[in-house]
Write a structure and sequence with these properties.
Layout (H helix, E strand, L loop, with lengths): L2 E6 L3 H13 L2 E6 L2 H10 L4 E5 L7 H10 L6 E5 L4 H10 L3 E4 L4 H12 L8 E4 L2 E4 L4 E4 L2 E2 L4 H12 L7 H9 L8 H15 L4 E6 L3 E6 L7
Parallel strand pairs: 1-2, 1-3, 3-4, 4-5
Antiparallel strand pairs: 6-7, 7-8, 8-9, 10-11
Helix pairs in contact: 2-3, 6-7, 6-8
Length: 229
């Protein structure tokens, strides 16, 4: 499966060069020329990585990054900027960026950074949300409206992985790695804990579901809204 990237960059010539270069490496790239359009695309679509210029018209890159994080979006963000001072980098990381690339840069380095970021979701967000389900990564708790779901340490890890990859399939092996690491659980342990999560969803009338799609994996999605890559 190819990597999906959003580029938010107002320099049209640079943006065209980046988009063309990424396509050669089988990286799909949407483009927005201002911060407002970029934020709209972030809210409407799923991306593996966001490439975000700081100096953008209508809404600057730091604000776009901060708004995305405040909305619990955990897509890895790579800041592209001509500013290379320590203060500028600190401001970027404080806003929630994951990496920093100073212009001008080599396209080969950009590709390497994108591939590395695409392999993980961002750790900059502390809240994950899907429909009426909210997962607090700091408190290690899940809520639906004002009710707290009863989670064991294992079901918390399981829900975290599914929330991080919401609306996208997660294989059985990936879930086992995220929850148990190198240890191999009993053959039906994963099934038992997913059953526990489903019961919690039902008891609290949470409008999300876990669906097992043969050949794809387990997908956490809003009820009646399911797509498979």
């Amino acid at each position: 499966m190819s990597i999906s990237v959003l580029l938010v960059e107002d320099d049209i010539d640079l943006a065209s060069t980046i988009v063309d270069y990424l396509e050669i490496d089988n990286i799909d790239c949407d483009h927005a020329a201002n911060g407002v359009h970029g934020l709209t695309l972030i809210e409407q679509n799923y991306y593996d990585v966001i490439l975000l210029d700081i100096n953008l018209p209508r809404l600057d890159g730091l604000s776009v990054c901060q708004k995305a994080r405040n909305a619990s979006n955990d897509t890895p963000i790579l800041m592209l900027t001509a500013k290379d001072s320590l203060a500028d980098k600190v401001a970027g990381f404080d806003a929630g960026t994951d990496d920093y690339l100073v212009k001008p840069f080599e396209m080969e380095e950009l590709i390497v950074r994108i591939i590395a970021l695409s392999k993980r979701r961002s750790k900059q967000t502390t809240m994950l949300k899907l429909a009426d389900l909210t997962l607090d990564l700091t408190a290690k708790s899940a809520h639906c409206h004002d009710a707290m779901l009863k989670l064991t340490p294992i079901t918390y890890k399981l829900l975290t992985k599914l929330m991080q990859e919401q609306n996208h399939p997660v294989s059985r092996d990936a879930l086992i790695q995220a929850v148990w690491g190198a240890e191999q659980p009993d053959s039906n342990s994963l099934k038992v804990h997913i059953h526990h999560l489903r019961k919690q969803f039902q008891q609290h009338n949470v409008s999300v579901a876990i669906t097992n799609k043969a050949g794809h994996g387990f997908i956490l999605h809003q009820i009646d809204q399911l797509t498979v890559d």
